[in-house]
Amino acid sequence: MSKAAAKPEAEGEAPPKKGGKKLLIIILVVVLLLVVAGGAVVVLLLKKNQGEDGATDAHAKEETHLKVDLSHPPTFVTLEPFTVNLAPAEGDHFLQVVMVLKVVDPEVAEQMKGYMPEIRHEVNLVLSSKLPSEISTVDGREELAKEAMERINYVLGFEKPSAEQMKRNPGPWGPVISVLFNSFIVQ
């Protein structure tokens, strides 16, 4: 007898195709690439935001902390010693003080020589207007130094800015940055 004819497969079933596995692999690779690319974009955006925040923080730190450049030391002008009678409300007292002015640069120090008589006059007025009790504390001496600095800067042509201007720009507002006391004797 003749061989039986091979049964035809059911009409709804198709023989497995070899191309189907390739298509599945391609789809998986594309999805994997999209996930990796999305992750890379997220990482780059996060790093960019951190970089901007870091730059802002570094800039803020730079503004709040003075940089000390040891290759360019500050310029100091030592004034001749002052001996003044203090305000007489608490008896007879006198003050002997040696002041040093910290200025913005050596050129200013040279230019100050021409103003020295007027600077000494203003400092004498400030010193002699104080009571011994006003300058016996650290706060009192700091206030005295601040007042002397303001008067000296005024002599040099720089008026103290308003409180609002000082808030916007808290840095030095005149050529004399600070007044230092090398010696301070009250008797």
Automatic annotation (TrEMBL):
Keywords: Cell inner membrane, Cell membrane, Cell projection, Chemotaxis, Cilium, Flagellar rotation, Flagellum, Membrane, Transmembrane, Transmembrane helix. GO terms for cellular component: bacterial-type flagellum basal body; plasma membrane. GO terms for biological process: bacterial-type flagellum-dependent swarming motility; chemotaxis. The chain crosses the membrane at residues 23-46. Its main location: membrane. It is a single-pass membrane protein. InterPro entries: FliL. It is found in: Cell inner membrane; Cell membrane. Belongs to the FliL family. PANTHER family: FLAGELLAR PROTEIN FLIL. Controls the rotational direction of flagella during chemotaxis. This is Flagellar protein FliL. It comes from Nitrogeniibacter mangrovi. The lineage of its organism: Bacteria, Pseudomonadati, Pseudomonadota, Betaproteobacteria, Rhodocyclales.
